[in-house]
């Protein structure tokens, strides 16, 4: 599975962005998908994950209520809608695919996209 994330950019605080992650291959629906982020000088951290069918989701406490993960298996795409952004959300955002199912563990993901930069100005 090859993943390509896009949709990042510069946004003002309290603004919104929607990230997309397009996957190649016919087995997209076999993978749980996740979004992670990494700020300069910090470790990569979990943001959100979604199950194979899209019926189950799980979020980091820091984004719960503000971010929403979704997927469209007919388009091999996973999304991250980000609302009420604040400067602490500034990071490179990565999408990833996990064959073993939904998880927040970085090491459990099998495939990673290249990342897209999100910058939130105050």
Helical/strand content category: mainly beta
Number of strands: 11
Task: Name the helicity range.
Answer: under 10%
Strand content: over 45%
Give the integer mean of the pLDDT values.
96
Radius of gyration: 13 Å
Overall 3D shape: globular
Low-confidence residue ranges? none
H/E element sequence = EEEEEEEEEEE
Q: How far apart, in Å, are the first and last alpha carbons?
A: 37 Å
Summarize the biggest pleated sheet: 7 strands, mixed
Number of helices: 0
Summarize the structure in words:
The structure is a single chain. The chain has 122 residues and is an all-beta fold. The protein is 0% helix and 48% strand. It contains no helices and eleven strands. The chain has strands at residues 3-6, 9-12, 17-23, 32-38, 45-50, 57-59, 67-72, 77-82, 91-98, 111-112, 116-121. The strands form two sheets. Strands 2, 4, 5, 6, 9, 10 and 11 form a seven-stranded mixed beta sheet that branches. A four-stranded antiparallel beta sheet has the order 1-3-8-7, with no helix packed on it. Strand 5 and strand 6 form a beta hairpin. The protein is globular. The model has no long low-confidence stretch (mean pLDDT 96).
